[in-house]
Amino acid sequence: MNLKRIFGTLLTILGIIGLVYSALEFTRGSDFTRSLIVYLILGIIFFFTGIGLIRSTSDSSKM
């Protein structure tokens, strides 16, 4: 089991959730612009960090 790949997948999913949540709140016309910006920035950071972890982890199975 590769822990880096699982953690990368988890970060990517959290990033997608943050991006979708901020987009939905933006389209609803929410007045909480500071929180929307925070959710957007955290979503971007989590998403790209997760993608980077997944890409940098090599697939090597020992048999």
In angstroms, what separates the terminal alpha carbons? Answer: 13 Å
Number of helices: 2
Relative helix content: over 70%
Helix and strand composition category: mainly alpha
Q: Provide the residue-averaged pLDDT.
A: 88
> What overall geometry do the principal axes of the alpha carbons give?
elongated
In the residues, how many domains can be counted? Answer: 1
Gyration radius over CA: 15 Å
Description:
By secondary structure, this protein is mostly helical. It has one domain (3-55). It has 2 helices and no strands. It has helices spanning 3-28, 33-56. The model has no long low-confidence stretch (mean pLDDT 88). The chain crosses the membrane at residues 6-24, 36-54. It comes from Pseudopedobacter saltans (strain ATCC 51119 / DSM 12145 / JCM 21818 / CCUG 39354 / LMG 10337 / NBRC 100064 / NCIMB 13643) (Pedobacter saltans). Keywords: Membrane, Transmembrane, Transmembrane helix. This is DUF3098 domain-containing protein.
Give the SSE map.
Blueprint: H1 3-28, H2 33-56
Protein name: DUF3098 domain-containing protein
Keywords: Membrane, Transmembrane, Transmembrane helix
Transmembrane segments: 6-24, 36-54
Features:
63 residues; mainly alpha; elongated
